[in-house]
Amino acid sequence: MTPVTSGFQVFVDGKEIRVLPNGLARLLGMPKQFTLDVRVPSGGTTGPIFRQCNKPQTTLLLVVKNLDRLVEGADWLWVKSGKFAGQ
Hints:
Elements: E1 9-12, E2 15-17, E3 33-40, E4 43-50, E5 59-64, E6 74-79
Antiparallel strand pairs: 1-2, 1-3, 3-4, 5-6
């Protein structure tokens, strides 16, 4: 898995969120359910997100098969442990 650190935009409930230089977007004080939209030059993906609060900070990844062709598949995954947890 290779993190993408640039070339995309993140929106929460229609409002653009600043993406940090390392590719992370910090979402603070989110409601229990919200709509997350990620846009890249080749398209984008939108989905309802249900907050999972088992820790003070959790990590949500958008895992894509091909960033240039999002239609090939994308999944939202909550990171529970390992290298990307709690970033």
